[in-house]
Design brief:
The chain contains seven helices and 18 strands. It has 354 residues and is an alpha+beta fold. It has two domains: 166 residues, Aminotransferase class 4, branched-chain amino acid transferase, N-terminal domain (D-amino Acid Aminotransferase, Chain A, domain 1, 2-Layer Sandwich); 166 residues, D-amino Acid Aminotransferase, Chain A, domain 2 (Alpha-Beta Barrel). Helix 5 packs across helix 7. Bound molecules: pyridoxal-5'-phosphate. Pyridoxal-5'-phosphate (PLP) binds next to helix 5 and strand 15.
Length: 354
Amino acid sequence: MIAAADFKIIKSEKSKLNEQSLENIPFGKYFTDHMLEVDYENGEWKNVEIKPFQPLSLSPALAAIHYGQAIFEGIKAYKSPEGEALIFRPHDNFRRFNISAERMQMPTVPEDIFIEGMKMLINLDREWIPSFKDHSLYIRPFMFSSDEMIGVRPSENYKFMIILSPTGPYYNTPMRIYVEEQYVRAVPGGVGYAKAAGNYGAAMHATAEAKRKGYDQVLWTDAFEHRYVQECGTMNVFFIIGNKAITPDLSTGTILSGVTRDSVIQTLKEMDLHVEERPLDIEEIILAHKSGSLREVFGTGTAATISYIKELRYKEYVMEFDVTNWKTAPEVKDRLNAIRYGIADDRHCWMMKV
Ligand SMILES: *Cc1c(COP(=O)(O)O)cnc(C)c1O
């Protein structure tokens, strides 16, 4: 048990806040005054510190750099009209973080470090949560192996950290998507369900090739048959067909269980849509498109909440959508945002007040 008294807090002498307007700042580029840093040594978590945001000094033999035991999370905090700090579903990210940790043979992080540390850090840097429309504070917890030894084995030492980045609106223009049939993101038995750093590095080549062909992102398909749709880049994906919403199920372990995905499913049900989580064949999507029942396609994730897909290309077949006519995705987005910014009733108790 880590008590609040075990947190060592070293405040920065001067805030960087005055140097930088928080309006319309790009995602992930600016960081707040403080960070959380915790060490795992000899089988226990220790040196729980909140201190000025600063570079790390690390050995070139650092295990994480060579063998990739590294995981992360992405969470957002919002400012309510009353000026309260509200964090969206952090316990769900906490649980997922430890699922990722177990898959990567890393130690789990106790709740009183992950959640309480996040609360203390946000409390200290709460002025950094922008109060402009559609702005938020992005929270990035992460862990990496820190043995200073080149040997392929699970590390004995780790660092757990949280950094915070204020962020402006994510101007997500509707995306053009290439259905990927050559490269794969995840396989059954693999690490697709973990938010492991290597998954993102491994996806970059396919994404770059799709960009060269004029697309914004790939829609991943299953590794064996390249038929069943998986995720869209680093977002979960939803298809509105007739009065049903369909999203791939999580049973194969190849899909990251998004907190936004779960929130969107609950919201769609509240809007009286029938939601199906099941394998979804690209041929079914094409047939729905041909019959005119494929109405909306969108990706979901913390960074952008919902990203509309205006074009989907599978081999030579191109599906185009007029997103200005959509009803479902915009309503889901509005409903979620109203809860996040403390405007609508938080009936699911999704928001944690700091
Ligand atoms: C983070 C992530 C998502 C979205 O998860 P959220 O919890 O909604 O942010 C989806 N797919 C992948 C591969 C991801 O890394």
